[in-house]
Task: structure prediction
Amino acid sequence: MPRLLILSISMFAILAGCARREAPASVAAGGEGQPKTSEANRYMAYEHSIYLQADEDKVVTIFEAAQSACRDAVKESCAILEARVSSGEGASASLRFRAKTEGIRKLVAILSAQGKVASQSTTAEDLAGPIADTSKQIAMLTDYRTSLEALRSRPSNDLDALMKLTRELADVQSQIETLTGSQAGLTQRVETELLNVSINSYQGRSFWAPIRSSLTSFGEVLSSAIGAVIVAIAYLLPWAVLVGGITWIARLILRWRKRARAAT
Result:
């Protein structure tokens, strides 16, 4: 009986491996689970990017308004994935949202109304193949699990056979859970869209801006220059002493020679 049971398990494993290898081919050939051509857009995952320019004092306001709009978009299932802001001179902010199509449209409209759109882009990824492939693998593993459970329920099984069946069932269940999580992530990417937002303040919009910037950094630049001079003096001082000493000795030798010549 154990040999027959092990043989049965091995046959199931071989069939499972073959089904896994054949899944992508069947999807590519338009097999079961492959979306129809007219429904291909249902499996597209969209990601949008928008770059805004605004007055320096409005960057934080736009940043907060975008987050508030996302929190209020209950029906569109909006989520804030990333939010960074830097206020003051040269203010900037970046945000990343996930929401349904209508929620993304509302966010873009709100942002466009509060700042100047410098650039905007959209990319799409076709997830029809990965979704169909994952569904096939889950179905195959589920059938395999059912067969293993049927084998385990036989009253003629001994302890060794039960342990092997239990280990195989645990491994299959782990694979099913992993694939189910991957499928959920793919489904979420299809049912929602991503929006990347970058907000920067206008550069060089004021005549006095460079002057203010120079005055602000005057103290730092001055202290750095003084420090550089001190370092230079520290490097040159030993050489100055050495050169001065050599010059003094050379003059003494010249005077001694002159006196010796005058004496002769």
Notes: The CA atoms of residues 203 and 231 lie 36 Å apart.
